[in-house]
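Hypothesis: this fold can be encoded by more than one sequence.
Test: take the structure tokens below, design a sequence, compare later.
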């Protein structure tokens, strides 16, 4: 008897870790199936590292610091990074497809995002010989000067929503500064990070400079990395609760930290704004990455005279979002990246309704033939939201926009700042004075005026308050991978 069901494709195999310049089987880790969020079925087998694997990776990273990499002048590190950036560019489409396979992010978004990383690596290469110290005037009895030296071995721990971007934001400055790295991608989306190993090897990086060890956080590679006495810094992107656990665990060995955490960003639309453009940005930002971005303008603050108009436009635009197979380039929005996130989003939608917000559109899992088994959610819009509601205070990480009305500048600023977070904010107005007045009073690490989600390698990015510590991107990021050594020479 023949079956109408197509035979399942064999699982892709990413069953080795990248340690000390080579792909190796895990010693005490495991092999785990990675789930395709568009179908809910496994699509790949991935190696997760255990404690011995992390020990090996950290030892390789430490040894590399003492080897040729540690003595390499900045311009030679720059040349290696440039070669890597070129290989990355040549591979960008394949990387974007893999990123979409693993995370469910719509391919058109993956292409746009991954397409920019090569430029970022080039920019970091241009800074690899610029970490200069200074001389300190004293008197003739001493010569005092500072040197900027790499912080050492970096444990880079990344989230599942933007694996390649988060890796780029850490690897770029860490390598420019002369550090070595053990990269631990999120357990849900480890594949593209492992692919980077091939590119680092092909670019000619000495063994051990970059090591890639997927695994779980708790009771796995993440926890072992944080506790490891030979890791000098943890560069972490993820949730605030995880950051606190890491901070406590890393305190034992007095590590350095940078934390890029969550957000609940206000996106303020004044009635005098170019509403067409503002709506484009506000709706795009609500559905980007299926709502799984730390920078989403998930609280849309709308001035009352245009509130009803904006609610109606949001609903109409939500209806035009093509939600479907993420590898189809016509798709705007893919599924949520994993089952747990799907459940979280649906539960917040129930919360919003129970809190008395008005569900304007969406609010359910999609179940069409092109969605079968996948973690798809309809773009969802809540109106009549008060900033006291949980859907306005907590990070949902799904395609859920909460539209909050306000009367004037003072109220907009008060609502915008009434949050535990402080990552990003956006405001739209045609009044230049108002733009500056409001922007200067918002407690967030990034404020966009008449644009949204414009982020470049050169613009520092990071949070106030519960959104994090330190900055990624910009020369500020380079700084966070350097120590200052002061030398005083008696003359
Ligand atoms: P998460 O905190 O659950 O996991 C992030 C990483 O930490 C994963 O690699 C995980 O395995 C690891 N981890 C978990 N527990 C650990 C432990 N005890 N010790 C060491 N490592 C551990 O976060 P997530 O759910 O993967 O990502 C979503 C979060 O990331 C959201 O809050 C989002 O806003 C945030 N984020 C922030 C930025 C930013 O730049 N600010 C960017 C992307 C995502």
């Amino acid at each position: 008897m023949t079956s109408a069901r197509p035979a399942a494709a064999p699982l892709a195999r990413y069953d080795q870790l990248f340690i000390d310049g080579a792909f190796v089987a895990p010693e005490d880790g495991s092999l785990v199936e990675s789930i395709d969020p568009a179908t809910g079925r496994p699509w790949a087998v991935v190696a997760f590292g255990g404690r011995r694997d992390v020990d090996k990776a950290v030892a390789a990273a430490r040894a590399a610091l003492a080897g040729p990499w540690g003595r390499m002048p900045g311009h030679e590190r720059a040349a290696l990074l440039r070669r890597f950036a070129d290989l990355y560019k040549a591979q960008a489409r394949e990387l974007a497809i893999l990123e979409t396979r693993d995370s469910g992010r719509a391919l058109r978004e993956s292409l746009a995002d991954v397409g920019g990383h090569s430029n970022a690596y080039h920019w970091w290469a241009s800074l690899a010989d610029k970490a200069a110290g200074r001389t300190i005037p004293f008197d003739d009895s001493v010569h005092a000067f500072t040197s900027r030296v790499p912080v050492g071995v970096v444990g880079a721990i990344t989230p599942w929503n933007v694996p390649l971007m988060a890796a780029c934001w850490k690897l770029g400055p860490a390598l420019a500064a002369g550090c070595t790295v053990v990269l631990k991608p999120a357990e849900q989306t480890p594949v593209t990070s492992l692919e980077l190993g091939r590119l680092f090897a092909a670019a000619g990086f000495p063994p051990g400079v970059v090591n890639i060890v997927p695994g779980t956080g708790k009771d796995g590679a993440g926890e072992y990395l944080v506790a490891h006495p030979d890791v000098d810094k943890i560069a972490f992107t993820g949730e605030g609760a995880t950051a606190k656990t890491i901070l406590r665990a890393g305190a034992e060995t007095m590590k350095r930290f940078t934390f890029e955490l969550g957000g609940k960003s206000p996106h303020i639309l004044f009635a005098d704004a170019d509403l067409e453009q503002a709506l484009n940005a506000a709706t795009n930002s609500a559905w980007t990455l299926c709502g799984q971005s730390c920078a989403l303008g998930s609280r849309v603050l709308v001035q009352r005279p245009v509130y009803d108009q904006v609610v109606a436009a949001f609903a109409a635009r939500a209806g035009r979002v093509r939600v479907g197979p993420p590898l189809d380039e016509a798709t705007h929005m893919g599924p949520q990246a994993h089952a747990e996130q799907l459940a979280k989003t649906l539960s917040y939608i129930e919360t919003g309704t129970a809190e008395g917000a008005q569900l304007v559109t969406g609010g359910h899992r999609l179940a069409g033939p092109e969605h079968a088994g996948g973690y798809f959610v309809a773009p969802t819009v809540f109106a009549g939201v008060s900033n006291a509601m949980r859907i306005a205070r907590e990070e949902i990480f799904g395609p859920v926009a909460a539209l909050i009305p306000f009367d004037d500048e003072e109220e907009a600023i008060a609502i915008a700042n009434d949050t535990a977070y402080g990552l990003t904010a956006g405001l739209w107005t045609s009044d230049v004075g108002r733009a500056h007045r409001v922007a200067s009073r918002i407690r967030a690490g990034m404020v966009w005026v008449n644009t949204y989600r414009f982020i470049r390698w050169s613009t520092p990015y990071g949070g106030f308050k519960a959104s994090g510590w330190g900055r990624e991107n910009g020369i500020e990021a380079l700084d966070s991978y350097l120590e200052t050594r002061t030398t005083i020479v008696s003359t």
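The longest strand covers residues 142-150. Residues 266-449 form a domain with the Aldehyde Dehydrogenase; Chain A, domain 2 fold (CATH 3.40.309.10).
Hypothesis status: open.
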